[in-house]
Amino acid sequence: MGSRHAADEDGRQLAAGIRGRIGAEIRQARRAAGVSQDAAAVDAGMSRPQYGRIERGEIIGVTLVQACRAASAVGLRLGLTVFAEGDAVRDAGQLRLLERFRGHLPQGAAWRTEVPLPIAGDRRAWDATVGLLGRRAGCEAETRVRDVQAVERKLALKLRDGQVDIVILILADTASNRAALARHREELRGLLPLDTREVLRCLRGGRLPGASGLVIL
């Protein structure tokens, strides 16, 4: 019963947050376009009071259709995705990948694995962290990249919340990963500007890179 109650409460809180964010984005887009609530409501096929409640995140049972119509009326397209809560359990391939990366670290590097993010109640953790000369890198290991954008979002949020100076994405050297990078490397360049050679050259020199990067091993 305890876990069921916790899931129910978590679900309610999560839904409230999503409603609030969707409503705020719709309201901002409407105001930026100079459109009144009355006009937006007409385009969305609903009453002005209902539209206003969607903007304020007040309709607990708002449907996806209603939210999509409200967003479309001000030039937005509502998107939805789901992802694993917290971080996935590391598999043997990821652990081997982390150990290969560790082999490139200089003497004196502080190496820790499964490092929780410093936020109470947050279930995320860095796969590993590396400390050198007063700076710290958060490391994430991926044996297979299936969704580059999802990886980018995850890393950006961890970099924001994880109290590290840089992030290093460690990828297994496979044909599928190299193909994914060939298609999407430039999309990651803003978050991970450095490539394998530059990252490893800095580590061989006994220091962390000056910016985030990715390493293929």
Features of this protein?
217 residues, alpha/beta, 8 helices
Would you mind describing this structure in some detail?
The chain is of the alpha/beta class and 217 residues long. 48% of the residues lie in helices and 15% in strands. Strands 1-2-3-4-5 form a five-stranded mixed β-sheet, sandwiched between helices. Strand 3, helix 6 and strand 4 form a beta-alpha-beta unit. Helix 2 packs across helix 4. It starts with a helix and ends with a strand.
Task: Chart the SSEs and their pairings.
Blueprint: H1 2-32, H2 37-44, H3 48-55, H4 64-72, H5 92-102, E1 110-116, E2 125-132, E3 135-142, H6 148-161, E4 166-171, H7 175-188, H8 196-204, E5 213-216
Parallel strand pairs: 3-4, 4-5
Antiparallel strand pairs: 1-2, 2-3
Helix pairs in contact: 2-3, 2-4
Which stretches are poorly predicted, pLDDT < 50 over at least 5 residues? none
What general form does the structure show?
A: elongated
H/E series, N to C? HHHHHEEEHEHHE
- Rg estimate, integer Å: 22 Å
Question: How widely separated are the two ends?
Answer: 46 Å
Order of neighbouring strands in the sheet with most strands = 1-2-3-4-5
Summarize the structure.
The chain is α/β, with parallel strands linked by helices and 217 residues long. The chain has eight helices and five strands; from the N terminus they run H-H-H-H-H-E-E-E-H-E-H-H-E. Helix 2 (37-44) packs across helix 3 (48-55) and helix 2 (37-44) packs across helix 4.
